[in-house]
Amino acid sequence: MVRLIQILVLGAAVVAGQDFVTLEQASSRSGRDMTPAYEGRAITIRGQASAAPVWALGTYYLPVRDATDHGLLIRGDRDRFAGLQPGDWIESSGTIQSVAAMPLLAPSSILKLRHEAAPEPKDVSISDLSSFRYLGLLVRTTATVTGGVGENLGGRSLAVSDRGNTISVFLPAAVGHPPGELKRVRVGDHVRLTGVATQYSLEPPHDSGYQMLLAAPEDVEVISGGMLFPPLLVGGALAAVILVLGLWWIREKRLGINRQLMRSFHALSEDIISAVSPAEIAEKLVTVLPTVTQATGVRLYLYSRRSKALERVPTQHEPDPMAVPIDAPPDGLAGGAVVCFRNRTLLNVPDVRRSPFVPVDARNLPRSAMFLPLLSQNDVLGVLEVGNARRLGYFSLEEQAAAQHLANQVAASLKLQEQQTIREQLFRSEKLAATGQLISGVASELRAPLESILQLSTSLAARGRNPIPERELRMLAGESQRASEIVSRLVSFARPDDSAARHVDVNALLASLMQFRDPEWRTLTLRVQNRLTPKPALVLGVQGQIEQVFLNLLVHAEQYGSESPAKTISVSSSLIARRVMIEIGYSIPLNEQGAEIDPFAEGRSPDGALGLGVCQGIIQSHGGEIRFRGGSGTDALRMACFEIDLPVARDTERDAGPNVGHDGRETARSRTPAPAMTVLLVDPDMGGQRQLLGLLSGRGHRVVPAPMEEAADLTQRVRFDAVFWAVRPSVSGASDYQEKIRGHVTSFVLVSDGYDAELAGSLESSGGFLLARPVGDADLDRVLRQMDARGANTSGVRPAPSR
Fold this sequence. Notes:
There is one protein chain. The protein has 17 helices and 36 strands. It has a six-stranded antiparallel β-sheet, with helices on both faces. It has a five-stranded mixed β-barrel with strand order 4-6-7-9-8. A five-stranded mixed β-barrel has the order 11-12-13-15-14. It is elongated.
């Protein structure tokens, strides 16, 4: 009772000396500056502690609230709030103070009335917090972080926004809070915040500076991660990228159009150079030039010395011919062509109707025109007219330069056509002269034997029936044979080359080919280095094929060497280890990329010459190899080289040499005839098949050619004495067919592209023979003798061939 009486007395004294107000009244504002209405007045309030005291800026703040969800902060030291817990209802008396426009209660007394459950934070939005309504109240809200974490002496802060409203969040620096605690929060994160709504406004009117006061870092909860960069920055960067890509696309599109026009222009230039007549040039210009420039019409005038006029080349658009006299040009646009021809310079007419060359009433003319002289070696061959029927104005400087270049290309093509015509006339004259000389020489050679035949015939006719002396008959036969040989040599010019293998001196063959190409090389100003060894280098092969291979390689070297600054061709040979090495080198242009590419990948050479890939196959069929080495040497002289490696003929063949008859032709050596055999020939190469067929048939053997697929079945039904197998092992199924055939024949001869000693030994140990291409008489006779000797040793008597 005594304690209760003391409390009542104290309450009465307080009520008598101070005003009792609500929290809404205590935090109210007044005046234009929005200052606290009760600032400096002593009041008494009642409220519930909504959270534990919060340390900030050197003091503690206790948030209290009432039943109407209004709040107020009580300011004091820690001892002042001793024993108070969240949920306690208190009655406090004191004075209203203002700190940065925020109303605070500096208490003189705090009386705990009762304890209830701690209240939950008030859920509000950022827009609600941007007002005086919830100041001093414990609130909870969600927002997006829009400002990075800042730090000062008082603590850490960041900015959050929601629907265009932004407030600051302040975490005071208190003992036990690490400095970088809020650094886990990034700009763009969606967070949930729990704290006290406060205000920090230093300048009137005090209606801004709203913020949230946090008690601990745990009051910031990240709901979802945001963007690494601010949306505005990302949007700006994306817009900049789109703008740059758009500008780049426009630029690339223009460059693509320019590149396409340049390709069309260069293709037109190439077509003009390769044209064979002025009419073809005019058609190409009319078709392509309007797609490359602003031209809508093109005319080509060529100067005729006979008529002294510019003659228009007819086209499909303008098939009627037209001649413009140089001395008296007519009125009209053609007068501009005459002026251009006389002045030997480009003439640009921006407005045709105002030109002095065109009458006032002229119609069906282009709006603007350009005339370009066809210049070649200080000579004007004609005029190229380019017109635009759509607009007035000058052709651009780039178009003028390109059109003048094209006109010079036309002049160069016309010059080439003129030179080609002269060359063809000279070539026909030379052919006629050569034919006449050939006929004259043959007639001179035939004259002597024919006169002798005539005299002998007259002498024999004068004898009547007397016996004819044997001496005169031999003389008559000899002169007749001589005349026949002369005619045979004449016919041999049109006869195809013999495919029989014989000894060929490659050094002498190359020397003759170099002498044959020497006039052309002199015309091209090529420097030729002859490094052929004087010692003969004999190989076994078909002379015509080897000669064609060397000729094609020399022509290839000539084409590339003439385009290089050095203009050099080198031909050398050497004998190493029973093989002859021929090197044909040539200089290449410094920036020539095609010289690095393997020339054997090409198809056929120009002018119908034998392709280099075929040349490689011919050399391989002769047991040799051909290689290409490109791009070697210094910057001043880069050389490419062909290396041809051929086997030298064996000493026995070289020493024996071919037999030569009285007419100078090679004849077969005398050989011991072998018994006739029935031979199966399997060779997919028709040329090689014909050669073997002729060689075997000439020796009296019966030869049956057959495809590889039918050979196995044929050997089971017909008995063959030998099989000549010329199918490469790389062919699909060749090994299987070969094994089936070898069990049904007496002798098996493998025909390969080159001679291999190990393979020959392996075949001989198993009863077979190896024959290397090109097949020579000596090699074939040796194999036939060995086959005959082996058959005689086996049975004593050779069986008769099947019929």
